[in-house]
Structure formats: C-alpha cells, structure tokens
Amino acid sequence: MKLLVCISKAPDTTAKIAFTDGDTKFDENGVQFIVNPYDEWYALVRALELTETSGGTVTTITVGTAADDPTIRKALAIGATDAVRIDADPKDSFYVAKQIAEYAKANEYDIVLTGKETINYNGAQVGAMVAELLGQPFVSLATKLEVAGNVATLERDVSGGIEVVEVGTPFVLSAAKGMAEQRIPNMRGIMAARTKPLNVVQPVDCDDLTSVVAYSKPDEKAACKYIDPENMDELVNLLHTEAKVI
C-alpha cells in the first residue's frame, strides 16, 4: 500500500500572535511551530498503522520553505518512510492543493490523507481540492478507516449517528478525531529521522487566486459579570442587551 500524508506546520497553541507588513502577514519571529495536530495524530498515525499491518510505505508531503524542515523531521521521527517538500511559500488552499495533487498524480498513491483542517486557518479545504484535481473520490471528516485489498471502509460522524462508507482506491480522505491515537516519537525514531530522505521538489506554476487584505485578532474577552442568583431580572436584561452569540 502506497500512502501520501499531507503535513502542515502550525503555531503552538501557546504562541503569541502578531502581524507585520500592515497586518497582511503573520509574524513568525519567536513562534514555536508544531505539526498540525489533525495531520499528525489522525492522518499520519492511521497511515502508519495500516502499513504496519499490511505493508507499504508512508510518504509525507508539505508545501513550504526550508523553515518547515524541523516540522517534517518530526513526522519522519514518528515513523514515516520518507518526506517530500514542495519548495514554495504557500499562498492559499488552492495553491497548496495544486502542488500536492500534481505530485500525487505523478506518483500514483493508493490513498491521500489529510487532517480535517489546520488549527491556524481552520479552512478544511485542501483535501476536497486535492480530490477534485485528481478526479478521485473524497471522504471528509473520517473517524475510522479499514482497508481490505482495494476497498476501504470508512466511518464518519453525522447528525444522529454514524455513516459507513465504502470506496475503492485510489481516493482522498480528511481525518478527524477518533481515526487514531497520538504517538510520541521515541529516541530511535528521532535518530532515524535524521537520515531518512527529505526530497525537495520545485513547485508547478499556479495562479494566485486570493490575496490577504488584513489579519486581525479577535476582541479581548470581557470580564465576567456575577449576578446574584436572586436577581433574575438583571440576568434576563443582560442576556438581552449585552450577551453575544459566538
């Protein structure tokens, strides 16, 4: 089985967020980056489990610059066979999907796995775009994946229950919570990652379809207001006049 796992870096959740160039660019100075959890914990680990059971290879693919290499090496330490980095600064979801799809098309993978979204953009777009560009089926938000021969059975949560889907390879999926459990790299994996292949590939031409107008931070959280439990009229008034639905 030949599997391709899309890996993206994301800021650690404790990172201080700031913007530069007139609020049009994320300021990476001093930011600690991690492997996007949905890519690592669910897509990558489930791909590794499948190859450990049935044989095969797991290649990770990242669209990014040399600054992404430490993040890619962590994915290799967890157990990926090798890695590919498309040497480009990702512009938007379509640009990323185009680069991944062109590489996948040329190398014929059985399954392309992505996390359901990145924790910094939350767009949940790349997986579907890759599938469309490849002309392959796409299963989103999968929580379980089993493969028998050329047929995969997937589960995903839907309103009121669980949906079971069967699809033939090749196909693309986005992985959600429940697909696998997080793995911590051990020392052997960390040492092996230093010598595993990380192939740098030049990007294909792709038009810029979007541009950033500005980034902005959400409003600061307001202080909590404590209401006397006997004063229900004040509580009702505040719910009508000040409470916001998020």
The CATH H-level superfamily is HUPs
**How are the strands ordered across the major sheet?**
11-10-9-12-8-1-6-7-13
| CATH C-level category | Alpha Beta
Number of strands: 13
* Shape, principal axes of CA atoms: globular
Sheet with the most strands, sense and barrel status: 9 strands, mixed
State the helicity in percent bands. Answer: 25-40%
Provide structural commentary.
This protein is of the alpha/beta class and 246 residues long. The chain has six helices and 13 strands. The protein has a single domain (2-216), classed as Rossmann fold (3-Layer(aba) Sandwich), CATH 3.40.50. It has helices at residues 37-54, 69-78, 93-107, 126-134, 187-193, 232-241; strands spanning 2-6, 9-11, 19-20, 25-26, 33-35, 57-64, 82-87, 111-115, 138-148, 151-158, 161-168, 171-175, 198-201. β3 and β4 form a beta hairpin. The N and C termini lie far apart (43 Å).
Chart the SSEs and their pairings:
Blueprint: E1 2-6, E2 9-11, E3 19-20, E4 25-26, E5 33-35, H1 37-54, E6 57-64, H2 69-78, E7 82-87, H3 93-107, E8 111-115, H4 126-134, E9 138-148, E10 151-158, E11 161-168, E12 171-175, H5 187-193, E13 198-201, H6 232-241
Parallel strand pairs: 1-6, 1-8, 6-7, 7-13, 8-12, 9-12
Antiparallel strand pairs: 2-5, 3-4, 9-10, 10-11
Helix pairs in contact: 2-5, 3-4
